[in-house]
Amino acid sequence: MHSIEYIYTWLFREYGPQGWWPLINHNGSNPTKTGIIKGYHPGVYSFPHNDDERFEICIGAILTQNTTWVNVEKAIENLNKRERVNPVSIANLDIDILKESTRPARYFNQKAQKIKIFTDFYLKLNGKTPKSEELLDIGGIGPETADCMLLYGFNTTSFVVDAYSKRMLINLGLITESATYQEVKRLFEENIPRDLIMYQEYHALIVEHAKRYYQKQPYGENDPLKTLMDSNT
DNA sequence: AACCAGGACGTGA
DNA sequence: TCACGTCATGGT
Question: pTM, whole model, 2 decimals?
Answer without folding.
Answer: 0.95
